[in-house]
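ESCALATION

Customer reports they have been waiting on this structure for their group meeting. Please prioritize. Original submission:
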Amino acid sequence: MLSEGALRAAARRANQRLGVEDGDTCLPFHHMGGLAIVERCRQAGCGLWLQEGFDVAAVAAALAGGWVTHLSLVPGMLWRLLEAGVEPPPSLRMVLIGGQALSPALAMRAHEMGWPLYVSYGASETGGMIACESGAGAGTVAGRVGALLPDVRIRSDESGSLQVRGPMLMSGYANPERRPGQGLVDGWFCSGDLGSVDSAGVLWVRGRRDDVLVSGGENVHPLAVEGMLAGTKGLGQVALSGSPDPVWGTRLALFYTGTASPEQAEALCRERLVGASLPRQLIRVDALPLLETGKLDRRRLAQMAAYPAE
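Update from on-call: job pushed to the front of the queue and completed.
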């Protein structure tokens, strides 16, 4: 349950950070990432170019028109634009990346091609983004999200999970009686994301607590492994999942879209990973499973790891 005041507060602070004037969005309105953009544009009094789903050619054509200044994407969309060789026009001042972690390799590739990246972090429960990093190094360090937006407060609980408070926070999760407070603890939202804020006020996120895989008695964070392998020639896009194993606890499975054989993929992994983080299965797929938002579908990945032949 997000109040009008919370949406206004979230959009106002995002606009201050992003300098929104005109925009183009490929994100669906029934998710917070898309809905937040509408409120930002309404507050700024700017135009909005709405695509009917994500299509590389349509986005490239809109950018080539010369009037789009801000573009919102998830990492998978950015990857497809780079793979198609789409170059950012001079009119494009900002590409907001959100929805899931951006791999440093993909970020560096985008910077080299001149894409002006703004890498964000947020949630539906916070009305969208609450932290953002921009500039030449945006997204190039795994886990680094950037500075918090004004009035956002963050702390970590005993498990390392991030808790958030601020005027953009939800009233609570929806319920038939519309009672506020469900999902909040003393006014704090417990995100389930693992992370911390350093002495310079920069937010760092290591991944989700419920995504952690325990293999060989050690915690393995899929985002950390994916960040080490992303951009490796022959692997393409990568995603780590796992299935129950009587010896390891969890048998790690790496899915990749590149041209390497499983044997070659294993050799590439051994060059970059050690110990419990080494995947025991290397599975080549034509494409990684995605949710309709463009985010990685980790539930489907887990099913594919358990039944790789399906």
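Sent to customer with the following note: The mean pLDDT is 87.
Escalation resolved.
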